[in-house]
Design brief:
By secondary structure, this protein is mainly α. Helix content is 66%, strand content 2%. It contains ten helices and two strands; from the N terminus they run H-H-H-H-H-H-H-E-E-H-H-H. Strands 1-2 form a two-stranded antiparallel ribbon. The radius of gyration is 21 Å and the shape is flat. The protein starts with 13 loop residues before the first helix and ends with a helix. The relative contact order is 0.12.
Amino acid sequence: GFIQSGGQKVSIPPDMHFAAIFCFLCFFLRESKLSMLTGIFFVLLVSVSAFLTLHKVSLGAIGFSFVSLLIYRLRNFSIKNVAGVLFLVLIFLFIVINLGSNLLNEFSVEINDTGDGFVGGSANQRILESLLIFDEMAKSSYLTQFLGKGFGSHYFNPGVIEHYPDYVHQGHSTPFILWLRNGVLGVSLFAFIAIYSFRSLFSKNPERLIFAAPLFYCCLASLVDLYIYWGFFMGFGTGLLLAQAAVDKRLRKTIG
């Protein structure tokens, strides 16, 4: 995609972010024995692939994979395990720093000179969308705030975002879009998944971490990116995590 676009940004669906973290953790946490050379090659492959998409959220997915792996190694501490993860992190940082300043600039977010926004329209656009949705819902009835306006709902844009129409259906922040379409009820269900997957990050069971990390990262990234159309993987990932938690609970009862 990077080559075909001539070095421009390449849109990556959230399914790929979920799959990247899932595969990364499976690669390092499953029982199979891997050589250091294989591990380095895998890190090189996923890091360069994520970097060439020129999307912060894609690079963040790989960074979060390292964080999740480090959390598990620290919970199951041994000098060898932690040193191995830190070595892989250094390789990742080396790749990021040495791929060139032009590429790094694509990932930067800077505050403008007046201090009331960001350099570049993307960050400003997301903030303005959220404020417009908040204003739309604040003017609605309590019942509408709780249940939302439905999937076909729009919010009013009084020329604040110039290239948008007067009534906008889409937005980037998933929690705000959920509030608009599904109300507080929808946001609460989303928050439950985010909190539950976050708590599961600190499990000593690697199987549970493998399911929890990609789910939590996608929830985290959805604060600034529209992930509302990744319903299959969100449902599939939540089901896997809850099923693994049920298995863990049954095993504890059996052993106990």
